[in-house]
Protein 1
Amino acid sequence: MAAKKREYTTYQRKVIQRFYDNRDAIEAQRLQELVTEIFLAGGAKKAERLWERAAGLLERVEGLDAEVAAAVVANRDVEALAKIAGSQSG
């Protein structure tokens, strides 16, 4: 059975296009919010989950060396993560 191709309305296509046009800004904002959440995280389990999310976001940051991103996550360096997030917003 062949899968039915999804048809989008003109409005839906525009919304999807705007999302992808602004994806860098959206992910930069998510990364900034994540820095705050990590800084305020109360428990080790919550912090671990947040660092996993940070690792996923850092993989998608354009122009960031993978080794640098891995070192930030491995060392749990909130200050370095904040600097990366700040550099992405501008």
Note: The chain is about 75% helix and 0% strand.
Protein 2
Amino acid sequence: MPDNPIIESIRLKVLEQIDKTEHLIQLIPPDLIAWSPQWSSGSFDVGHLLGHLLECFAGFCSVFYAAFPQQFEDALTLRSLPVNHFCKPEEAIARVLVYKKYIEAGFDLCGDADLERMLPTHFVPAESVMTLLLGNLEHTVNHKYQLFAYLKMLGVPVGTRDLYVWRGSEESTY
């Protein structure tokens, strides 16, 4: 049993979402990056959805920077990277890997006791590290599913195994 079983469980779930999102990005047909669903004028096209997914991953880095500013100081360079922009799959995958490195470093700094620490936010005076991490996870999962739904609408053959890690299967690396 790890020393910090709660943070380890969250870490594994976040890394699963990153890996599955990266997998889905690799399935995007290059000629359909500007496609968007016709049901709403406010929907992201595929390229902007990728840019928004980068913001989801940057959110985890922001939490870790707020919690561990001295140890996470070099993550400040991430602020200069664009998010919420039209992004091609190659750029998105390269950036996902950058964010993943920082997210893993953040989890290495964080222990179960840190989860109850309160951090100031833009939305409310303070939230716990746990609430912020789970909120970012929820945001990521929702937009990962949006990408999955777009791929289905585009006729890309995706299924449940593209969306979830199946525990106990040979595909599972966690």
Note: The chain has one domain: 5-30+41-163.
